[in-house]
Amino acid sequence: HEYGHLLGARHSGRENDAYGDKTGYMGNKVSWQDDIGTQVCFNAPKLWYFNWFPQYHRTVNPKYSSVNTRLVGINDIVTG
Q1: Taking the CB of residue 25, how many other CB atoms lie within 10 A of it?
Q2: pLDDT tens for residues 17-63?
């Protein structure tokens, strides 16, 4: 979590809870693994913010164009 701050990320909040978004590491108050063994990582918005895996980034404005593409999950990147 603190590494995320060092990289410029803020907490992943929800409504009035600064840690309310539990989809990733910046909404998690604990370490990389919580008390019950759930492993967490940075979520998709943080990966985009850090510009990690830019070869998979695409910005499309549906008002002006359409696109037929495949969504890529982190596991697709890790396992090739």
Answers
A1: 20
A2: 888 887 888 887 665 555 665 677 888 889 889 999 898 888 888 88
